[in-house]
Amino acid sequence: MYRITNELPTASEFVQLRVDCGLSFRDVEISAKALQKSDYFIGLRHNDTNGLIGMGRIVGDGIMFIVSDVAVHPTQQGQGLGKVIMTHIQNHIDTAIDKTACVTLLADTPADQLYKQFGFEESAPASIGMMYKMK
């Protein structure tokens, strides 16, 4: 049904999967540069079409890391693929990231329930996630 890859997708594939999954559009040229800065990438490709059906990545600088762009194509949801992606992400965090680093993510609901299964916790009230809205 699918194969797992750590090979970065094309920027067009990345943007298209984001849009297909209801995530915000990202500029293709900017996405191409951003993907190159990934600390870790996990992709799921359909065996028959080789199309990108799932992904997730970690961006970081050695001290701070962000789990980002976790997405499963709507036609493939409900099959546990989000758990497959997060298992690989968690394994990378546990084996390749310094234990003193901070690993965060910004969770949409109901995906927060998936992340909780992998040890992510809401940071409030000690801290509150905030986001700058570009104008």
From TrEMBL:
Coiled-coil region list: none
A Pfam family matched in the record: Acetyltransf_7
Entry-linked SUPFAM superfamilies: Acyl-CoA N-acyltransferases (Nat)
Protein's name according to its UniProt entry: Acetyltransferase, GNAT family protein
Organism: Listeria riparia FSL S10-1204
Keyword Transferase: yes
PANTHER family: FAMILY N-ACETYLTRANSFERASE, PUTATIVE (AFU_ORTHOLOGUE AFUA_6G03350)-RELATED
PROSITE patterns, A to Z: GNAT
Domain N-acetyltransferase, chain residue ranges per copy: 1-135
InterPro entries: Acetyltransferase_Butenolide, Acyl_CoA_acyltransferase, GNAT_dom
Keywords: Transferase
GO molecular function, one term: acyltransferase activity, transferring groups other than amino-acyl groups
